[in-house]
Design brief:
Oligomer: single chain
Structural class: alpha+beta
Strand order of the largest sheet: 1-7-6-5-4-3-2
Number of helices: 3
Number of domains: 1
Order of helices and strands: EHEEEEEEHH
Largest sheet: 7 strands, antiparallel
CATH class: Alpha Beta
CATH topology: Alpha-D-Glucose-1,6-Bisphosphate, Chain A, domain 4
Number of strands: 7
Distance between the termini: 36 Å
Length: 138
């Protein structure tokens, strides 16, 4: 099992950062490779992605959700789990921290893990989230 922990400061209040992160169906707008997220109910999500040219899909379950503080999940199919936490830095600035645990399955995923591809993707997704939310100015 591999673990990645990354964070980014965003120039929006913590309420705005948290609210935007809970708009799961908008994830394809800032997450590389994610083609669709469908929220099935308050706890279950269906994900579709194109990873290294291969279409894949999986289900995730939200295991903890504390407003303006954290969201945690576990997935079946794409074996991963993690949490996103939100910390106010000021009235207009927040820290978003993502911890992702995943099991590189198969040769291509093991190569991606060894070459920091997943870490780079997480960093890129957080930067795109920052750009996305700051431009929107919610």
């Amino acid at each position: 099992m591999s673990i990645i922990t990354k964070s980014i400061d965003v120039d929006v209040p913590v309420q705005t950062a948290y609210h935007q992160w809970t708009q799961f169906e908008e994830f394809p707008k800032f997450m590389e490779g994610i083609t669709e997220v469908t929220q099935l109910d308050d706890e279950r999500l269906h994900w579709k992605a194109n990873i290294a040219g291969e279409e894949t899909e999986w289900f995730a379950k939200v295991t903890e959700q504390i407003p303006e503080t954290c969201i945690a999940w576990i997935s079946r199919g794409a074996m991963n789990a993690g949490a996103v936490t939100f910390q106010p830095l000021s009235n207009a600035k927040s820290k978003v921290m993502l911890q992702l645990e995943y099991n590189p399955y198969g040769f291509m995923e093991q190569i991606g893990d060894a070459t920091r591809l997943v870490t780079d993707r997480v960093e890129g997704d957080l930067k795109r989230f920052k750009d996305y939310i700051e431009v929107r100015g919610l």
